[in-house]
Design brief:
- There is one protein chain.
- The protein is an all-alpha fold.
- It contains 6 helices and no strands.
- α1 runs antiparallel to α3, α1 crosses α6 and α4 packs antiparallel against α6.
- The longest helix is centred in the first third of the chain and has 26 residues.
- The termini are close together.
Length: 124
């Protein structure tokens, strides 16, 4: 159990850090975030800070040990965010290596989710 818990926290911590750091530019409406999401992908500018705040809250939720239902929703929301980003980039840029780089983070999210379930199953 200690090994699963350790791997879970490493993967989840790295993933949450990625989500938080990538969201800060969205919340602050940094020019590069606006250029990428609005100009390049075509998202409306008003949605950018909302997406950033939602990703930060989701990352915090997966780090909090309690509140299982909120954690489930956070994992689902982060999954849809990353799959939506992957799909958007794939449609706009085509099958470029940089687009498939997103699959690493989707994999980290899935690994964190399944390790969390394995961790709570061994405790219960």
């Amino acid at each position: 159990m200690k090994r699963i818990t350790l791997i879970y926290w490493i993967v989840t911590g790295l993933f949450a850090a990625f989500m938080i750091f990538s969201s800060i530019s969205n919340v602050t409406l940094a020019p590069e975030a606006v250029a990428m999401l609005s100009d390049h992908l075509g998202y409306p500018k008003y949605i950018i800070p909302f997406l950033g705040a939602a990703k930060i809250l989701g990352a915090i939720a997966i780090l909090v040990p309690s509140f299982r239902r909120i954690k489930e929703w956070a994992y689902a929301g982060l999954f849809f965010d990353l799959v939506g980003a992957f799909f958007s980039l794939l449609q706009v840029d085509g099958p470029q290596p940089s687009v498939f780089f997103m699959l690493i983070f989707i994999g980290m999210l899935l690994a964190s989710y399944f390790l969390w379930h394995k961790k709570i199953a061994t405790v219960a």
